[in-house]
Amino acid sequence: MLHDMILAAGLSDIGCKRAANEDRILVDREQLLFAVADGMGGERCGGRAAELATRALAEYFRSPASELNSSDFPDQSGTLQATQERMATAIRLANDRILQESATIAECSGMGCTVSALAVNGDVATVGSVGDSRVYLFRDGQLIQVTRDDSVLAKLLDSGAIIPEQTRSHPMRNLLTQSLGTKENVEIQIIEFALASRDRLLISSDGLHGIITDTVIREIMASTDELQDAARDFVAAARELGGPDNISCIVIECLL
Questions:
Q1: How many domains are there within the chain?
Q2: 32, 82, 117, 146: which sits with the fewest CB atoms below 10 Å from its CB?
Q3: What value, to the nearest 5°, has the Cα angle with vertex 153 and ends 189 and 19?
Q4: Cβ proximity of 53 and 106 under 8 Å
Q5: Can you say whether the dihedral through the CA atoms of 160, 164, 165, 168 is positive or negative?
Q6: What is the DSSP letter of 68?
Q7: 31 and 61 in contact (C-beta within 8 Å)?
Q8: pLDDT, tens digit, for every residue of 184-222?
Q9: For position 153, what pLDDT does the model report?
């Protein structure tokens, strides 16, 4: 069975300096749906936004199509395929839930979160992302960043205004250009690709990949056999460097 061919382990840690954990992870082995959401807007409401996002994703993927109609959250581009539209609709639903609660609970006004989600269907992975949480693919010893960051720094890098070495200390490193809960029509990255046997995937919040380097990520992915051990190693590596933010990751392995 496909479920036996996809292994996953997740871990979320408060880090070394935060008073609360505003990250949430979703590891749904039945639906083969995995997500990391990183909350913004205060200790209580940032975590609430991330919780709403992961719950909405799980609810949509578990519900019959007749109960949650994708036409309520239409594809603005009109170009998505069925599996891609399913992911996009789930993320639009998450955005709507956060906006609704932000508008009705005064103390949570302005809350939001990032999200990166991955669903497996057969030998195909469908990724949906908003913000600067990331999905990585580790294949044949190579580490590939699948998602792009919706951030000011990513735009500066793309334009050549800064070099990668400047990103970790740049004053605008935390400024996002997209997040859930901040506007009605959010722009969603949708990426789909075929999986190969022994592929490993990492979904992480910026409390992990913003602290440890791609070289360290690659080393842990390559050298750790057990996925739960890999998740612990990722968290430990970020904590060793000060763990200034919440640290969350999901490590997935394909045995197809």
A1: 1
A2: 82
A3: 90
A4: no
A5: positive
A6: S
A7: yes
A8: 999 999 999 999 999 999 999 999 999 999 999 999 999
A9: 75
The enclosing domain of 32 has a CATH number of 3.60.40.10
Neighbours of 162 (CB within 10 A): 15
CB count in 10 Å sphere of residue 97: 19
Dihedral sign for Cα atoms in the order 118, 204, 217, 27: negative
| C-alpha torsion angle, residues 148, 157, 49, 57 (rounded to 10) | 0
- Which residue, among 206, 193, 211, 22, has the nearest Cα to 118 in the 3D structure? 193
Q: What does the pLDDT look like over 138-187, one tens digit per residue?
A: 999 999 999 999 987 777 766 666 666 566 666 666 689 999 999 999 99
Residues in the chain: 256
Amino acid sitting at position 198: R
CA dist., res. 73 & res. 79, Å (int)? 14
Separate counts of helices (H) and strands (E) for the chain:
7, 10
CA 183 distance to own-chain centroid: 19
User: How many percent of the chain have pLDDT more than 70?
Assistant: 85
Ordered alpha helix ranges (H), the chain: 2-5, 43-62, 82-104, 152-159, 206-209, 214-223, 227-240
pTM above 0.85, yes or no: yes
> 142 is in which domain, residue-wise?
2-254
Question: What is the band of 127 on the pLDDT scale with cuts at 50, 70, 90?
Answer: very high
> In this model, does residue 65 exceed pLDDT 60?
no
